[in-house]
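request received
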Amino acid sequence: MPKFMSRNDLLLFAGFSLVVLTMPIWLAPFGAGYPDLLQRFMIFGIFAVGFNILFGLTGYLSFGHAAFFGVGSYAAVWSFKLLTLDAIPAMIFAVVISGLFALVIGFLCLRRSGIYFSILTLAFAQMSYNLAYSVLTPITNGETGLQLTLSDPRVIDAAVGQGFVGQPVPNILGQQLSGYAGFYFCAGFLILAFFIAQRIAGSPFGMMLKAIKSNQTRMQFTGFNTRPYALSAFVISGMYAGLAGALLAVTDPLAGAERMQWTASGEVVLMTILGGVGTLVGPVIGAWIIKYFENILSALNDNILARFWSFLPEGVADVLVKVTSKFVGDGWHLTLGLAFVIVVIFLPGGIMEGVRRVAGLFRRSGSSGAKTAPQTQPAE
Amino acid sequence: MFEVIFLQFLNGLDKGAAYALIALGLTLVFGTLGVVNFAHGALFMLGAFCAVTVRMFLTMETVTVDPEKLSPWGSPLEIREPLVQAWFGDFGAVLVNYSVPLSIIITIPIMLVVGIALERGIIKHFYKRSHAEQILVTFGLAIVAQEVIKSVYGPNPIPQPMPTDLRGAADIGAFLGMQANIITYPIWRLIYFVFAAVVIGGVFAFLQFTTFGMVVRAGMADRETVALLGINIDRRFTIMFGLAAVVAGIAGVMYTPLLPPNYHLGMDFLVLSFVVVVVGGMGSLPGAVAAGFLLGILQSFASMNQVKAVFPGIDQIIIYLVAVIILLVRPRGLFGRRGVMEA
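response:
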């Protein structure tokens, strides 16, 4: 029997699962051990892992991935409205729909590469966003966002004879998905998503994708048709985004068009780059860090800062409060932008490259120093 | 019917002029330095906020409370007097009135410095890196610029009044010998169009008729050979980056009366102007200008009710749709040279 996974892969996977599942425990001291935030960690982790399958492996930089995320959300909510409140059919429906959507868009966009690919994806995402706000209002409910109501048909639930009172909420086999149940539901999907990504990266298919990134032309000269491989990566990555969007709809059944805007696509790019593009855990870590600091920093205000700096003399403390308050609260995006610029300039491999460099320093201090990380290459 | 079409054509001109100016700067940067600059929209926004700042300084006022008189609300009457008017009298009033066009004088050096500092400080290090990384770092810079503006000026749009003499509309129909009051067009939009034409003509003349411009064009065609001839081409390209920043900045200044600037103005225009550049052809200056006007006018026609009745929602997507079609059937754009960024 051929070996299923190498020892290192198995260790990485087990370690990752352990870290994810124990998150409520070890994140509690950092003020992040509550289900609502943890769910978002899981959801954006899935989104970033999926984005990395496209950008990290093939080098195609998509600036329109939020479109698939939004489509997944809408599909899931429609499944809740028309079929059943059970989460599983909604997830399947969302993944299929976003996969089909990605197939069409990917087929068109992958005719070009490099910057043209980025702009094509951007154009398609903006089209979807604008349409969702205007003409497609019967499907998307425009600015209000798509919501569940008591009067929805829900044919399967009606056939089974399941009734309920109050605000309809998604469930799974009758189990409520509130609190930690929701978190473990999402965590299960993140672990599954990570496992699939790991298998893809290690498979011959993954090798093909990496070959597209390093030199697409040479690969074509050796007789491979690269487009089907790139398209598969695009569709898989779109399905990941759809899954993440559906999970967001499960935890909060309200789908709005702002999830599809191009700044939302930019956010997942930030996550992936910050964590480390092309690595398996990097994008997840990037997503966690961004969501964590978004939550922590945007909650800070002048009073908290004043208490924090209160050990300093009054004048100095006042100045510091003034300065730091620009970087927290509403201004946390400024911190994010600065951190992002610094990472792109000095640490193109993201946090994972930083970890590798530091580890390299410890491992053989005195010798030639850390090996430089593989540079990201574009698909030209 | 002709009047309606002509009016829509005019309506497209001012937006098209803004697109053309931003796309011109983007193309200058791409053609000279080969950098895909996602921060270019932010430069447009910075220019707009230069105008806001100038007006803020010009309208600084002293407040004196007159306890004898009461305002209609019953509180003591506050007499506000702008400092500029106190110092310069009527001339000060003129200054305040014409604050937007006057801001250009101040915006030009500021944007030149900003542009050159940006190029020397950060973008210089990205010539050898991939386009993807250039996009990423300039995207990050755009976020930083946007957030700095937001933290200084707040999140709300800040309306900028246009000079009182230039409000109102011009009766272009009567001017062209048609019936009066059918085709009227706001004067400021007309000024914006003329201004854009002058700037675009100026940039082209600069590149075409000066020695500096000639060297830059030679550098765009073959950078290495020009450098081998002993010309410091890098410094000239840096100045071109500054020039592109100036063009974006003054385009932003003059646009403020049409659209009150807020912090995400740059991002809003950035996506569209990239689409414009791609439609015109990467690296082609005439292409950028032509595509800017073309897309502005197309957008204006698409928002006609008659068109919307046939294709619902077309006004929302027309620009992107055109871009997608152009990219798929003619990847080098309308005016792109063969072999330049033709992937």
